[in-house]
Specification:
By secondary structure, the chain is an alpha+beta fold. It is built from ten helices and ten strands.
C-alpha cells in the first residue's frame, strides 16, 4: 500500500488538528487536574461528526474510512488523551459492533443517537476476575419471557458513569465456556442498572472509569446482539478494531511528547547554549521521532487492511504493541529532556507521562498483543 494520506484524509486531519488546538489544548490541563469529564468538548465534536466518524451516512454518521478515523484519534489524543480514549471507545467499541452485528432495527434505533452524541457509549466486558481472560466472566443473563435478566459486575469501564448506551457481555450458557457468552445493547436507564465506584487513576483523569453493577437488570429480548453464544466472537473482533484506535491514541501522546521536547530543547539554555545543540539530546529526539513514524505507519497499515476487508488481528496487535511502547519511551525521554521541570505539573510532559502508561494496558496488555501476534504467526 501507499502509506500516504489522500486529499480527503489530509483535510480531515487538518480540520481535527485545528479543532484540537483551538478547543481542547487550552483546557486539557484543567480537565486533568479537576478530573472533569469533557462534556462540552464532546458536544462540539458531535457537531463536527467526530462521534459518528465510522458510522455510515444513512444512520447519521460521517461514514469515514479507518485511516481517517485513526488520524482523528491521534490529533485529539495529541492534545487530550482522555478525550481521545472516550472518542475511541464510543466509535470502535460501541458503534462498530452495532454496525457489524446489529439488526436493521437496532442500527436505526441506536446508531443515530451515537452519531449525534446524544448518548455516549461504553463497552462492558472486563470483570474483577476476567480482564485479559474474557472467557472467565461471571455476569449472567437469563431469558425470562421477553426480557433477559442480567446480574453481575463490570469493572474499569471507560465512560461507565457517563454512558447511555452500553455494549454488554454476559453468560447465557454456563456449560458452554466462552461459547456461552452473549452480547447485548443495554441502556443506562434500564431497571437494575447501577454505577458503582469511579476510580481515581494515574492518568487520563478526564475520562471517567467506573464499575457497573447489574442487579436483575431487565434487557429486552430484541436487544440481544447477533445470536446467543456469539458474544465472545463479537468481543474479540471488536477489540481488534479498538486496538487501532488505542494505537492511534498512543501515537498522539508520543507526538505530543516529541513536540514538547523539541520546543523545550530549543529554548532551554545550559552551559551557554540551547539543549538542542547537545548530541545526547539530539539522539533522544531522533530515536523518538523514528519510532513515532514507524508506529504511525503500523496504525495506517492496520487501518488499511481493515478497510480492505481482510483479517487484521495481527496488524492491529502489532500497531497497538509498538505504538504503546513508543509512547512510553517518548514520555520517559521527554521528561528526561525537561529535567527537573519535566517532573512538575507546570509542563505538559508530566501529564503525558501519566497518560501514556495505560496504552500498554487497556484493550489488551502488551503481553496479550504478543500472544495475538504469535498465534497468528505460529497457528
Amino acid at each position: 500500500m501507499k502509506l500516504e494520506l489522500n486529499d480527503q484524509q489530509k483535510m480531515i486531519q487538518n480540520m481535527v488538528k485545528e479543532f484540537a488546538e483551538k478547543e481542547i489544548a487550552p483546557i486539557a490541563a484543567e480537565l486533568d487536574q479537576k478530573e472533569e469529564y469533557p462534556t462540552k468538548i464532546l458536544e462540539k465534536m458531535a457537531k463536527l461528526g467526530l462521534l459518528g466518524a465510522i458510522i455510515p451516512t444513512e444512520y447519521g454518521g460521517a461514514g469515514l474510512d479507518t485511516i481517517s478515523y485513526a488520524t482523528i484519534i491521534e490529533e485529539i489524543s495529541r492534545k487530550c488523551a482522555s478525550t481521545g480514549v472516550i472518542t475511541s471507545v464510543h466509535n470502535s467499541l460501541v458503534s462498530w459492533p452495532i454496525m457489524k452485528y446489529g439488526t436493521e432495527e437496532q442500527k436505526k434505533k441506536y446508531l443515530p443517537i451515537l452519531a449525534k452524541g446524544e448518548k455516549i457509549g461504553a463497552f462492558a466486558g472486563t470483570e474483577p476476575n476476567a480482564g485479559s481472560d474474557l472467557g472467565a466472566m461471571q455476569t449472567s443473563a437469563v431469558l425470562k419471557g421477553n426480557k433477559y435478566i442480567i446480574n453481575g459486575d463490570k469493572t474499569f469501564i471507560t465512560s461507565g458513569s457517563e454512558a447511555g448506551i452500553i455494549v454488554l457481555f454476559a453468560v447465557t450458557d454456563k456449560s458452554a465456556g466462552p461459547k456461552g457468552i452473549s452480547a447485548f445493547i443495554a441502556e443506562s436507564d434500564m431497571n437494575g442498572y447501577k454505577v458503582g465506584s469511579i476510580y481515581e487513576k494515574l492518568g487520563i483523569n478526564a475520562s471517567k472509569t467506573s464499575e457497573l453493577i447489574f442487579e436483575d437488570m431487565e434487557v429486552p429480548k430484541e436487544n440481544l446482539l447477533s445470536k446467543e453464544g456469539e458474544g465472545f466472537k463479537i468481543a474479540l473482533s471488536t477489540l481488534d478494531g479498538g486496538r487501532i484506535g488505542i494505537a492511534a491514541q498512543a501515537v498522539g501522546i508520543a507526538q505530543a511528547a516529541l513536540d514538547e521536547s523539541i520546543e523545550y530543547s530549543k529554548q532551554r539554555q545550559q552551559f551557554g547554549r540551547p539543549l538542542a545543540k547537545f548530541q545526547a539530546i539530539q539522539w533522544m529526539i531522533a530515536d523518538i521521532a523514528t519510532r513515532i513514524e514507524a508506529s504511525r505507519y503500523l496504525v495506517y497499515n492496520a487501518a488499511y487492511v481493515k478497510d480492505e476487508g481482510g483479517r487484521f488481528s495481527k496488524e492491529a496487535a502489532m500497531a497497538k504493541l509498538f505504538a504503546s511502547e513508543t509512547a512510553m519511551e517518548a514520555v520517559v525521554k521527554g521528561v528526561q529532556i525537561h529535567g527537573g521541570y519535566g517532573y512538575t505539573k507546570e509542563y505538559t510532559v508530566e501529564r503525558l507521562f501519566r497518560d501514556a502508561k495505560i496504552t500498554e494496558i487497556y484493550e489488551g496488555t502488551s503481553e496479550v498483543q504478543r500472544m495475538v501476534i504469535a498465534s497468528n504467526l505460529l497457528g
